[in-house]
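SAMPLE LOG
Freezer: B-3
Tube label: C17
Construct: single chain, 323 aa
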Amino acid sequence: MRKVGQNFFWGGIMALGELLPGVGMQTVAIIAGLYDDMIMFFYQGTEFVRILLQFFFQKAKKEDVITAFWAIDWKFGIPVAVSLVFIVALLSGPIHTAFETYPAQLAAISFGLVFGTLPIPLREMTQKTWKEVLLAGTTFIAFVIFFSLNATEFGVAREINVFLYFVAGLIAAFAGFFPGISISFALLIMGLYQPLFGAINQLISGNWSLPALATIFFFGSGLLLGMLFCVRMLSYFLHKYRTLFLAFIFGLIAASLRAVWPFLSETGEVLLPWEVRISTFTSQVALITVAFLLVSGVRKLAEGKGTFSTSFGPKEKTIVTTY
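STRUCTURE (predicted):
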């Protein structure tokens, strides 16, 4: 019962991370040592779907479906999901308002949280050869470019082929599992954020138009298929190429610091730290430091209570046993 309560608590914290720009629940899962559990939960879900499909084609028995269903770690998934949905529904409005009112301050907090997460994958790498260095460096450069993109550079077409939303769903699924990337940010980069949420708002308001239904259907199909593929791919790499995967995560987290850079002009232009006023610099550094220390404190608290052995699961344990 205590484990369920802990998962409910961390679900709420992950929700807060998802609401903060550039952080995401994946980053919080790494801090809390739940990234491996999160991937395992979704992997078990994909196994259930796979066996269920086999049952429909008479290639699996009813007992296999029941076994796969109860093999899912519901004690982890249900409390995390309930808490996450509750906190997002409760605080999305206030945090959105706070972001509009205090964008620089929230960016500094996000920067500190992400920066505090950076040493975690580096510390858990069992080796640091030229392969890990090359992968981390390449990932860093590629995603710095990605995070520097502006959605307005792409524009939004008035008529977008619905199959584009299927591809967007595939990409969004990958964004949902990697730290530093959020689904909304990926949609912004693709110029599909407003059209997609416009379609959702149409359905909520009762306007069940065919274009809106097609948009949601194709995006949802791509998202579901992408999740099924992505989680199995992550499980494979965590099992077979653990150190290289950690190097990739390190480069990705380092690059995501660009997305939450806290030193900006009033027009949103990126500034170097010495280009801002001393009072602004001091306050931003103070917020970054507090957020960084918060991450360190959470890590030590969790380690002291034996919440986890490593952020990505015990080295002697594998997420999956067969592929």
